[in-house]
Design goal:
The chain is built from 18 helices and 31 strands. By secondary structure, the protein is α/β, with parallel strands linked by helices. The protein is globular. The termini are far apart. Bound molecules: coenzyme A (COA) and adenosine monophosphate.
């Protein structure tokens, strides 16, 4: 007999209009949709065309109207500054409405873009919601990116205003944001007339007269403004993510479909009830932060925890347990790397003895492959179900998960379980045919994808089609490779492109290669991801130098490390580059990065039949061994 999950999953595909229109009843609309889905111009599919709504209204105002005004909306807990602040839904409504007023006073209206360059402080969520309130489109840029990356995003999004903080705080150092904003603006082709600056006492900025406005001043001077109805299909935000080149992809998220999918996920995937405390320990600069620190918990009427700290070192590996016990967290969501960091510092979980984490019902992990060791450790020490789930910036919510709010399926280590309702996941061979169960292939989603998935890339419809839809007609290509077993469990094993995953952060090796090749002594280069016990993967560069270069190899390696940090940012964690004589290639000139990665990780590999000169592989192995890789 089919279980409850099977029934719901089947219905989501055979009666998707019925399924999603029922889910959409949980959202307040100012105008109902004409159609549930318009797929007449696939792959540019539109969910809920004709409908009007406001995401901020659904995330904030309606809870106040429904009597949740005094409930906590945001708990800001910042061990890195020693500060805490609790904001109720009523207070949040007031702050967001005034922030929207401040943005409007600076000329921001529906459809305008606003770049948000802020750390993990509550004002970041306020600014995002204020944009949503006005129908403006926010684009949050992660604090660990360099000015050049911020400039690329400014040039592409062409914002009317920037909202920034004076600084971000990392263990042991303060990062002043305004010099980064200044440099980005000087590099960008698009001038931005207004910057709102949140002054943090840890390092206030000097404001530029005429351009910069103090957050407190503009908030004090502005009137509260009401929610502006937008089309369900209008963009809520653009979130830039790594593509295969240095040019990031501007993933667009709509308003209506996004709300429907996120609200649905809170009960059915996360098994969370309104009023409970939900904590995604990520960063608002990433998709997990957008969806599960800000939008989903608030749409569901939960209390969300905004954590400014690290899993270890702020002050120790017990901080997660402190937060769970102090704020009565029922659901925790983070990346496996956070747990690997905790496990490394406190292998026996001794610090758990200092706290009562009885409120915790479930741990969700995503962002990278969950290794069985980390899964086992978390299960043994937390004594709650540990759920691996797989998703991407492009989807905005899980593609595969154990939907424990519907029915908890058995956990298979190494698998994020089965496709979530709405997603028709198939594993395809290069000709676009489904592979037999158990065989590896490209993990794809049959179109149409469910609500919340990207309708296009910002200003780049053609790139949207070429990046995701061109390889397999009628399917979205996820960029991940893996297999499905006989029970429909999905195993996500590797990327099929030049993306690597460092501490749950998605990075492009192609973008790093672009930086390396700019060094005057470098003739050719390659960047690969090598296995790392803590961060999952770390980037490693290979440099072939121009003939006649007399500079010291180590000095050139140090130069390129510095260049990547300056041009992409510290988050790239690019710390080593090895000088080699030649790079292994196919006869058609393609660099064999996968084979190099296998050698570096000391894994078995098959010598590619198309290799040009097999002797180069031994040279690479020798170079890797002398640099401490390849199982030396
Ligand atoms: N602003 C500026 N710099 C930042 C930054 C930010 N918001 N976030 C990270 N960085 C810097 C770090 O300071 C570090 O710089 P360093 O090279 O000078 O040390 C570098 O970027 C790499 O940071 P990170 O990947 O965080 O590594 P770490 O060694 O500082 O910490 C972990 C390791 C595992 C503790 C950390 O990666 C972590 O907490 N991961 C959680 C995973 C997560 O949140 N993933 C998001 C997707 S769910
Ligand atoms: P991002 O767009 O930054 O969220 O990164 C998405 C990528 O992270 C996916 O395409 C995968 O490569 C990887 N990823 C995310 N979650 C998982 C998971 N549970 N298991 C394996 N890989 C994952």
């Amino acid at each position: 007999m089919a279980g409850e999950f099977d029934e719901i999953y089947q219905r989501s595909l055979t009666d998707s209009a019925g399924f999603w229109s029922e889910a959409a009843e949980a959202i307040d609309w100012s105008r109902k949709w004409d159609d549930v889905l318009d797929d007449s111009n696939s792959p540019f599919n539109k969910w809920f065309p004709g409908a009007e709504c406001n995401t901020c209204y659904n995330a904030v105002d309606r809870h106040v109207e429904a009597g949740r005004g005094d409930q906590n909306a945001i708990i800001y807990d910042s061990p890195i500054t020693g500060k805490q602040r609790i904001i109720t839904y009523r207070e949040l409504q007031d702050e967001v409405a005034r922030c929207a007023g401040a943005l409007r006073n600076l000329g921001v209206e529906k459809g305008d873009r606003v770049i948000i360059y802020m750390p993990m402080v509550p004002q970041t969520a306020v600014a995002m919601l204020a944009c949503a309130r006005l129908g403006a489109i926010h684009s949050v840029v992660f604090g660990g990116f360099a000015p050049n990356e911020l400039a690329t995003r400014i040039s592409d999004a062409r914002p009317k205003a920037i909202v920034a903080a004076s600084c971000g705080i990392e263990p042991g150092r303060i990062i002043d944001y305004m010099p980064i904003v200044d440099e980005a603006l000087s590099l960008s082709s698009h001038p931005v007339p207004n910057v709102i600056v949140l002054q943090r006492e840890e390092s206030p900025a000097e404001l530029k007269a005429g351009r910069d406005h103090d957050w407190e001043d503009v908030m004090g001077a502005s009137d509260a403004v009401d929610c502006v109805p937008v089309k369900a299909t209008d963009p809520l935000y653009i979130l830039y993510t790594s593509g295969t080149t240095g040019e990031p992809k501007g993933v667009v998220r709509d308003n209506g479909g996004h709300m429907v999918a996120l609200k649905w996920s809170m009960k059915n995937i996360y098994d969370t009830e309104p009023g409970e405390v939900y904590w995604a320990a990520s960063d608002v600069g990433w998709v997990v932060g957008h969806s599960y620190i800000v939008y989903a918990p608030l749409l569901h009427g939960c209390t969300t925890v905004l954590f400014e700290g690290k899993p270890v070192g702020t002050p120790d590996a017990g901080v997660f347990w402190r937060i769970i016990s102090e704020h009565k967290v029922s659901t925790l969501f983070t990346a496996p790397t956070a747990f690997r960091a905790i496990k490394r510092e406190d292998p026996d979980g001794k610090l758990l003895n200092d706290y009562d984490i009885g409120s915790l019902r479930t741990l969700f992990l995503a962002g990278e492959r969950l290794d069985p060791d980390t899964l086992g450790w978390a299960e043994a020490h937390l004594k709650v179900p540990v759920i691996d789930h797989w998703w991407q910036t492009e989807s905005g919510w899980p593609i595969a998960s154990n939907c424990i709010g519907i029915e908890k399926l058995p956990v298979k280590p190494g698998s994020p379980t089965r496709a979530v309702p709405g997603y028709d996941v198939r594993v395809l061979d290069p000709s676009g045919n489904e592979v037999p169960r158990g065989d590896m292939g490209a993990i794809c989603i049959k179109l149409p994808m469910p609500p919340s998935c990207l309708p296009t890339l910002w200003n780049a419809d053609q790139r949207f089609v070429e990046s995701y839809m061109a390889e397999f007609s009628g399917y979205y290509e996820s960029g991940d490779a893996g297999y499905m077993d006989d029970d429909g469990y999905i195993f996500v094993m590797a990327r099929t492109d030049d993306i690597i995953n460092v501490a749950g952060h998605r990075l492009s090796t192609g973008a790093m290669e672009e930086v390396l090749s700019d060094h005057p002594d470098v003739a050719e280069c390659a960047v690969i991801g090598v296995d790392d016990k803590l961060k999952g993967q770390l980037p490693l560069g290979f440099l072939v130098l121009n003939a006649g270069v007399t500079n010291d190899n180590d000095a050139i390696s140090r130069d390129v490390v510095k260049m990547v940090r300056e041009r992409i940012g510290p988050v790239a964690a690019f710390k080593s580059a090895i000088v080699v004589d030649r790079l292994p290639k196919t006869r058609s000139g393609k660099i064999l990065r996968g084979t190099m990665a296998s050698i570096a990780d000391n894994k078995e590999y098959k010598q590619p039949a198309t290799i040009d000169d097999p002797a180069i592989l031994s040279e690479i192995e020798v170079a890797l061994k002398s640099a401490g890789y390849a199982g030396k």
